[in-house]
C-alpha cells in the first residue's frame, strides 16, 4: 500500500475511532490502533502521518517518544551526544516498570536527527523531524523569578517545527540550548527545566557545565531528571524535599550528574526502586552544594527549577496501574522506601489525544 493510500486509510480509521473509546493495552497513553497502524494527526499545516510501527511502537509494551531539537552555531553545538541518549534509553529499557500487559521495562524512542539511533542497526533516517535551531545564548527569560516559556513556544510553533510535524499527541518535546536563566536575579546556571508535572516540554541547558555542553553523563542525568518531572516525579519523589537521605534517584540533585551507587557500582542512571540502600556518604558528610562549572570553578548546584505545578503545591496524580496506598504516602519522608517507577505516569499532557491543544 502506498504512503498516500495508507495515510488515507489511517485518517479514515482515526476519524471513525473518535466516536469510540480506543483501547490502550499497555497504559502508555497511545492507543493500540495507533501503535499497530500509525495515525494521521493535524499539526496546523495539514494532516501528518505518524508511522508509529516503523518507529518501534509496540501495543503490548509501553513506549515513550521524545523529539529533540538543539541549538547550534559556528562555535557552538548543543546537540546531545549519542552516548547520553543511549544511557537514558537503556535506563528505561532496564527499569522494573510493570505495565498492565505484564511487560517489564519501557521503550524510549529519541529522535535527535536522521542519524540518531532508532533501534539495533537502525537510524531514524527519513522518519526524523528533529532539527538544528539557530544559536542563542539564553533561551527565554527567568528575570521574573520563574521561567517564561514564550520563546520556547515560538520555536515549537515555527514553520516546519515540532507542532507542524503533528507529533504533539505522541512525543515529548525537548530543546537543548546553553542557558535559560542568565537574567535570573537569584543566580544563573540551572541545567534544565520541565514545563510542569505531567507536562511534555523540556529544556536542557548545560552551558555552565563541562565544556559548555556537559559530559554524556551530565546530559543523560539532566534529560532523565527533567523527563521524570514530565512523568510525575518531584525532587523528593513524592514531594519537593531535595537531597533526601536514602532517596537513590536521578530526581535527587545529589545524583543527577553522577548517577547513583548500587551493589558497589557507581554512576548508575536510574530512578528510585524503593530498595533499602546503604546511605550514601555524599548525603551525610558533604551535602551536594557544589558542582564544577565548565571553567573548573565551583558553582552552586542548581540542577533545575521546580516545575510550576510543584510551586503551586498541586498533588501529583498517581499511576493508574498501581495507585498510591496510605503506606506510600506515610513513608514519603523515607527516601529509601519510595519507588519512583511505581509512581510514574505515561499518559500525560496531550499524549494520545487526537486533537491536542497547541
Query: How far do the termini sit from each other?
Result: 32 Å
Global shape = globular
Query: For this structure, what is the CATH homologous superfamily?
Result: Collagenase (Catalytic Domain)
Average of the residue pLDDT scores: 83
The SSE string, one letter per element, is HHEEEHEEEEHEEEHHEEEEHH
**Which structural class do the helices and strands define?**
alpha/beta
Helix content: 10-25%
- Please indicate the percent range of residues in DSSP E strands (runs of 2 or more): 15-25%
Core attributes:
358 residues, alpha/beta, Collagenase (Catalytic Domain), six-stranded mixed beta sheet, two-stranded antiparallel ribbon, 19% helix, disordered N terminus
Amino acid at each position: 500500500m502506498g504512503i498516500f493510500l495508507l495515510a488515507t486509510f489511517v485518517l479514515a480509521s482515526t476519524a471513525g475511532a473518535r466516536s469510540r473509546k480506543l483501547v490502550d493495552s499497555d497504559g502508555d497513553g497511545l492507543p493500540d490502533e495507533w501503535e499497530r497502524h500509525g495515525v494521521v494527526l493535524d499539526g496546523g499545516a495539514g494532516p501528518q502521518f505518524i508511522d508509529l510501527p516503523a518507529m518501534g511502537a509496540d501495543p503490548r509494551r509501553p513506549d515513550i517518544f521524545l523529539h529533540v531539537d538543539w541549538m547550534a552555531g559556528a562555535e557552538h553545538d548543543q546537540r546531545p551526544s549519542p552516548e547520553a541518549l543511549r544511557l537514558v534509553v537503556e535506563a528505561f529499557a532496564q527499569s522494573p516498570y510493570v505495565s498492565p500487559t505484564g511487560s517489564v521495562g519501557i521503550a524510549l524512542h529519541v529522535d535527535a536527527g536522521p542519524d540518531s539511533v532508532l533501534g539495533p542497526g537502525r537510524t531514524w533516517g527519513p522518519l526524523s523531524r528533529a532539527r538544528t535551531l539557530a544559536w542563542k545564548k539564553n533561551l527565554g527569560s527567568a528575570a521574573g523569578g520563574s521561567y517564561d516559556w514564550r520563546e520556547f513556544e515560538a520555536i515549537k510553533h515555527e514553520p516546519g517545527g515540532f507542532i507542524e510535524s503533528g507529533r504533539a499527541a505522541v512525543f515529548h518535546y525537548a530543546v537543548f540550548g546553553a542557558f535559560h536563566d542568565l537574567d535570573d536575579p537569584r543566580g544563573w546556571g540551572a541545567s534544565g527545566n520541565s514545563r510542569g508535572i505531567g507536562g511534555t516540554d523540556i529544556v536542557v541547558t548545560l552551558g555552565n557545565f563541562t565544556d559548555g555542553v556537559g559530559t554524556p553523563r551530565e546530559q543523560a542525568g539532566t534529560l532523565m531528571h527533567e523527563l521524570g518531572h514530565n512523568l510525575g516525579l518531584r525532587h523528593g519523589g513524592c514531594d519537593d524535599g531535595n537531597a533526601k537521605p536514602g532517596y537513590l534517584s536521578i530526581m535527587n540533585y545529589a545524583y543527577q550528574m553522577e548517577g547513583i551507587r548500587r551493589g558497589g557500582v557507581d554512576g548508575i542512571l536510574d530512578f528510585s526502586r524503593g530498595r533499602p540502600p546503604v546511605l550514601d556518604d555524599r548525603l551525610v558528610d558533604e551535602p551536594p552544594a557544589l558542582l564544577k562549572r565548565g571553567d573548573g570553578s565551583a558553582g552552586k548546584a542548581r540542577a533545575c527549577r521546580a516545575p510550576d505545578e510543584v510551586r503551586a503545591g498541586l498533588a501529583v496524580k498517581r499511576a493508574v496501574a498501581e495507585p498510591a496506598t496510605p503506606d506510600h504516602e506515610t513513608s514519603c519522608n523515607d527516601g529509601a522506601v519510595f519507588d519512583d517507577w511505581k509512581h510514574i505516569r505515561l499518559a500525560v499532557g496531550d499524549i494520545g489525544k487526537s486533537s491536542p491543544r497547541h
